[in-house]
Specification:
Shape: globular
Mean pLDDT: 89
Low-confidence stretches: 169-173
Structural class: mainly alpha
Strand content: under 5%
Largest sheet: none
Radius of gyration: 21 Å
Oligomer: single chain
Distance between the termini: 57 Å
Length: about 325
């Protein structure tokens, strides 16, 4: 595959997602300005990669670190103290510096700043996609399904930054703290990277990987909720019980729906990845077709149950206000 085609596969999924969010924000800036932030996000990805290389070179000189870096503890420490802070820090700077420039000339809305954050995160994703595809360490499908992840990481501090910069000073007293929101992003970033690598370790640690897609599904839900809130739309309420017992039951249903829905997506992801080893003619063998159909229907059933739980809780939340 040529370098140009790799670049297209790396950039097109994030660009399509950016256009999707561009169409959903009523007060969106010009698409050209969003593409500028997208490009800045890609540049910040290269800066983050360079900083990680420098840090890795320094800490690998410590014998004690070399002894633990391949253990799960070493992975957690590396993600929490190096990868998460560097990547989220570079994205934050990539949003703050241009915003500081534009804010002196225009009055930016909170939703505009939040959309700028999404654009930077998706540009960062495009750069990361290109690195993975160029080095052949991930497939196009794996990178495509992970397209919204960096936007989901950065959503908390993007929301806090939007409210802090885009509102009048007298309205900022109740806005969320940017440092706390940034730390939240770093922790979520760490959790996702640790859960995604848990399968490499001895039993029972691979079981942690079953928490990855439910957690990603929750982060996507959070991104959608923050997008609604920053546009002053009513959020989708799933916990509407009047007494503690009802609220506890509804929280349990939400957790159950996340586990079912997340692992239904995980199951389909594994199914598609397992089919990549077959030739096109082998896909039509009877036993292969039965394998595909049975796994697809099983995961579809789990997904439909999760959707039904979500719809039930959403309808209950709506009826409370009518």
């Amino acid at each position: 595959m040529t370098d140009f085609s790799l670049l297209l596969w790396a950039a097109i999924p994030p660009l399509l997602l950016l256009i999707y969010y561009y169409g959903r924000v009523f007060t969106a800036p010009s698409l050209l300005r969003l593409l500028l932030f997208f490009a800045i996000g890609a540049i910040s990805g290269f800066v983050a990669l360079s900083l990680q290389f420098v840090v890795e070179t320094q800490i690998n000189s410590w014998a004690s670190w070399r002894a633990i870096r391949r253990t799960l503890t070493g992975v957690v420490l590396r993600q929490l103290l190096e990868v998460g802070p560097i990547e989220e820090g570079c994205k934050l700077v990539a949003v703050v510096v241009p915003i500081w420039y534009f804010q002196r000339r225009y009055r930016l809305r909170p939703s505009t700043i939040f959309l700028f954050t999404i654009a930077v995160a998706l540009g960062f994703t495009a750069q990361e996609n290109w690195i993975y595809l160029f080095n052949d360490t991930a497939s196009i499908f794996e990178r495509a399904i992970g397209t919204p992840v960096h936007a989901m990481f950065s959503a908390p501090w993007g929301y806090a930054l939007g409210l802090s910069v885009g509102l009048n000073i007298n309205l900022r007293q109740s806005t969320p703290s940017i440092p706390k929101a940034w730390l939240n992003s770093v922790i979520c970033h760490t959790l996702v990277n640790v859960l995604s690598s848990a399968w490499r370790y001895p039993e029972p640690l691979p079981l942690l990987s079953y928490g990855l897609f439910p957690f990603l599904l929750w982060m996507f839900w959070r991104l959608e909720q923050l997008l609604r809130k920053i546009q002053r739309k009513s959020v989708i309420n799933l916990i509407s019980g009047h007494i503690p017992q009802h609220r506890f039951w509804q929280r349990g249903l939400v957790l159950f729906a996340l586990m079912l829905g997340g692992n239904a997506i995980f199951g389909l992801f594994l199914l598609i990845r397992s089919l990549s080893i077959f030739s096109p003619s082998q896909l039509f063998y009877p036993h292969t077709l039965w394998f595909i159909l049975s796994r697809f229907l099983l995961n579809l059933m789990f997904g439909l149950v999760a959707w039904k739980i979500y719809d039930y809780l959403r309808q209950r939340g709506r009826s409370r206000y009518f």
